[in-house]
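Q: Predict the bound structure with magnesium ion.
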Amino acid sequence: TQDTRTTLRTPIVAVLGHVDHGKTSLLDKIRGSAVSEGEAGAITQHIGATDIPLETISTMAGELVDPDDFDLPGLLFIDTPGHHSFSTLRARGGALADIAVLVVDVNDGFQPQTEEAIDILRRTGTPFVVAANKADTTPGWNPQEGEPIQRSLAAQSDRAESMLNENLYEIIGQLSDVGFSADLYWRVQDFQKNIGVVPVSAMTAEGIPDLLTVLMGLSQRFMREEMAIDVHGPGEGTVLEVKDERGFGATVDAVIYDGVLRNGDTVVIGGQNEPIVTEVRALLRPRPLAEIRTEKKFEKVAEVTAAAGVKIAAPDLDDAMAGAPIRVVRDRPVEDVVAEVKAEL
Ligand code: GTP
Ligand code: MG
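A: Predicted complex:
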């Protein structure tokens, strides 16, 4: 499997859902960070990207995952805001995604931005699983830190278990109302036909082993069938944010979703007025498990291979536009690439 690990692209997993349903907290639990606590009013206002290596996934998933079963390098998670005013960012996150996690608070069930997220996933044809979050808030819950959900359920009183089940079946019914056949994930045979619902807690990490396992299984199948792409071609990506970085001036936080981006490459980036043609001066990567939005210590690298979150330093990026395409020119005429970027704006 060593060979395919270098040619299979890291799948991009978008995390979508209603405000406060626990998207950032779930990612915090997976990466061992506290991004949510540092956010103003605990509201996410940007798209983030975090690379989770296969080793971390298999450690967290424990007995549920055998790393030898997978030949993906890991997962690139895209965090999105749930607040209603950020619909453009949700759509952008959804458009980048290969697969998605729809986070639903078990107590609140479907809310307006849950439905909006479902519309995005339907429109883009993105396979997804539902993380039924905050299972630990079920009255009488007996927390089993980090355990797979069925082991945790076995430790609950009949009353707590049936209260949780009631909420879970409510969500399954709501999914069915919007046209998706769904069931508790351990009853699902084909995750592309039926939506798996995974009870989780971002507080106690219960069910996170299950969620990671389902995501690995779904992306492995999906990537093998549809995305065994050439990761050596000219890089393609999307601007997440334009930010001033000390010592570099205006930089671009980006997700590269295809090919390779190298230091020194000529790139075309969508701008406020017209496409910017510039040369990459530095590629700065957050450490593995670090959120690009909040990372302070970047590592300079010579190249990045899709999929990856990366900060690009280059001249003339002040006018770069969030959401705009990024294209490496490589062997093509630069006018062709400029035209391609223009067509996408
Ligand atoms: P937006 O990004 O603004 O859409 O919110 P979000 O979905 O990222 O929610 P966030 O992770 O910021 O969590 C919102 C609140 O819910 C925080 O106070 C979290 O501590 C709390 N929370 C999230 N997940 C859980 C959980 O599983 N259990 C409990 N008890 N609280 C949770
Ligand atoms: Mg958030």
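A: The CA atoms of residues 268 and 277 lie 5 Å apart.
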